[in-house]
Structure formats: C-alpha cells, structure tokens
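Hey L., structure's done. Input below.
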Amino acid sequence: MQGQVVPLSPPPRGLALASKSTPWSVIWRMLGIVILLYIITQTAIAALYGVLMGELMLTIFSTVCFIPLLLLFVYIRRPKLTHVVMANPSPAGSNQHQLKDSRILLTPVPTTFSHHLIRESPPLEMPPTSTLWAVFTVTVLAAFLGLLPMMLSDDIGWIILAVFVGVPAWLFGFSLPVHAWWAFSTRHFQLMTNKREGEMMLIAGMLSTIPAILINSLLFPLLLFVIGIESMEPGTIGEFLILTISAPVGEELCKAAFVLSLHKLIDSPKRGFQIGFSVGLGFALLENLQYIMMSLGGGEYSAISYSITTIIRGIGSIPGHAFWTGLSGVSIGWYLCTKRGVSSNHLAVDNTKWVVFDGDSGQLVKTERELSTLGRTVRGWLYKPAHKVWSLPRTPLIGLPLAMMGHAFWNGSGWFVSWIFEDMDIIVQIIASISWIVILVIGLWIIGREILAAVMHLPS
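Output:
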C-alpha cells in the first residue's frame, strides 16, 4: 500500500455520519428556491408568449434571461458529497498510506485504508408545527396593523411604513403556512425521509406550476378563442371554464406527472400519498407567492385584502392542493407496487431510526418530544380504527379524477356564488363569498380528516 493512492470504493453498509441539526435551514432554502423558480417561470412564459405572438425580441430577451437562471437552479440543486476516509486495523495492512496532494496518513498500528464519496442525506427536520403557525399568526397581525394606517390616511409616512411591512409580510405570509402543513405531514405520516428526498418532493411541486401556468394562461385561452369565446374577464363563461376545466384538469395532470417522476422514491402506497401531498404543497407554495403579492397591491385596502387572502389560502387552498394531489399520489403508489409485483402483505413498516448524540459528552440525546395537550387532541381527532376509515383509491383512473373533481368544485362553486350575487350590493357580495369560503374550508377539513385517518392504516 505504501506509495500507492487507494482508489475510491463503495461505502460499507451501516456507515453512520453525524450532521448538525438545522430544522430552519430547509425553510430558508426552499424560500430562495421558490423565488428563483418563480422568476424562471415568468421568463419561460414570456418566451413562449413571444413565440406564439411573433414577438421575436421578447423571445430572445426572455431566453437570454432564462438560461443563466436555469443554470443557477441546477447548480443549487447539485448533490453535496462528503469524502470519508477510513482506516481499519488489520495485520495485513500498513502503517503508512499515500493520499492525494502529497499527503500521507500514518497509523500507530497496521491498517487497511479506504476512502469513499457519500451523498449527504441527513434526516428531514422541520421546526414544530405550532411554532410555524404561531409565527404565521404574528405575521398576519403585524401586517394588518402596519398596513391599516394607509387605509385611514394618505400620509407619505404611512406609505413608507406599509412598504417596510409589506416585504416581510409577503415572504412569511406565502411560505409559512405551506411549511407548517409540510412539518405536520412529515410527523403525521411517520415515514423516514431524508432532507434531499423531502426537498425533491416540494421542488417537484414547484416545477409542476410551469406547464400548468402555460396551460391556464396561454393554451386553454387560445383554445377558447378558437371556439369563439374571447372574454376571460371575471364573471364570464370564459373565466368559469378556466376555473372548472383548465385549472383542475391541467394542474392535477401536471402535479400527478411530477409525482410519477419521483417513482424511484415511491416504495409503498403510504409513500405515494406523502409524495403527492408534498408535491401539492410545492405547487401551492409557488402559486401562493403570486396570490399574496397581488393581495398587497390593494392600495389603501391592502390590510384587508392581505389578511383575508393569506388566512383563506393558509387554511383552505394550500391543504386543498395537498389533499387533491395526495389522492393521485396514493393511487400511483398502489399502481407502482402492483406493477412491481409487491402485494400489501409484503409491505411493512420501516424500522430505521435516526439518533442524535451530544457533541460534547457523546451521549445519546432523547429527541422524542412529549406531545402537548393540543398535539394529543389533534392526534386523537385524526385517529380512527382501520375498519372505520375510508378506502382510498388504488388506481390512478380513480385517484386522478377524484383530485380533479375536488379541485373543480372548489373553484367552480366559488365562481357560481359570485355570479348569483353579482347584481347585489357589494357588502352582500362580500358576505356571500366569505360565507361560502367558510363552508368550503369546513368541508375540506372534514374530508381531510377522513383522508389522513385512512393514510395511517396504509401499508408502508
């Protein structure tokens, strides 16, 4: 071995590496990625629009902006590797080992030497769900109070305050509810997930917005124009068709396609639901970015528009996307397991455990937190015996249409209520719309409870 560089070799089974606990890092990382992907999405749409409309300069300019942003995204998503050097005592070994860059490893006893490149894969850690919801609540209250003076006075000082309040309100308002649902689902599903896999699920959802936006904003309106429907203004039949056909069908197909793109991660129906749920949250994260941004453009009424939009989307639209795509995901999970010849009898619970050691003492640290009273209440509310839970779809031919129907009903019923009350006083319109949204959210939570109860009995 002396004087010879040992080549890389596969790491041994059971090799464990320590990593620093950073539960908030994934949130900041996803926040940066979603903003980058939003810009990429807008440049891609502008480039395609230029092609369709014959605007050559717009296409060229958008493409020039698109390419470096795409390369930056690829660079950010590159796998992180750790170089592990191992020296094991062996009578047949050597006391001296040649390393690269004119380095030599000396050992007090004869050892065999090996080194490996390992992809970093620490467990997916998230802050407590209650903490995320608490910060979200404080954000909404602070934003309302900071934007409210602008509704009462046009003084320049209040406008400046609104600008300073608006930026963090936007960042926290569109992202924190998504991460709160993600943290909740990560703990509820009780599936071992590493950080890279979790990020892949959420980013897949973000990427699915690109073809979905192209369908909703360009392709479907072009189809409507061909058949003679030119107006997509609020209250028109064109808007109704986009809300009830283009959005549900296009978006759910795109999300399901990106769930299927992660087929290598889907080892069970339960994992399929987890991936579908996370992809739905990723889609909602990028979509929410734009909705919350638009709500802050309400002028003197920004305090009201921001607060209502942020709360409704946080407790309604965001989990709606997750539950709908979760149905597609669980059906894809069943389909893949059946295609691979894996029956439910051969699926079992993953008993892999992550442990944490104290860096100073080397002692094992207890990481299982005692559930709070609220946590025990939520877990009890979500639990149902196996014989009382719903039967979730086992084929995409059922799961995907169910997702589309749930999505279409959410969008279409809201449009229908607005259409019924469009000729009445504005106060009546607002009360009717908010009342129907409350009914939709309550219904979604009831259905979501049944779905989550059923997921806990899925094989994994």
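The chain has two domains: 83-119, 129-344+383-455. The beta strands are 81-99, 103-119, 356-357, 364-365.

-- N.
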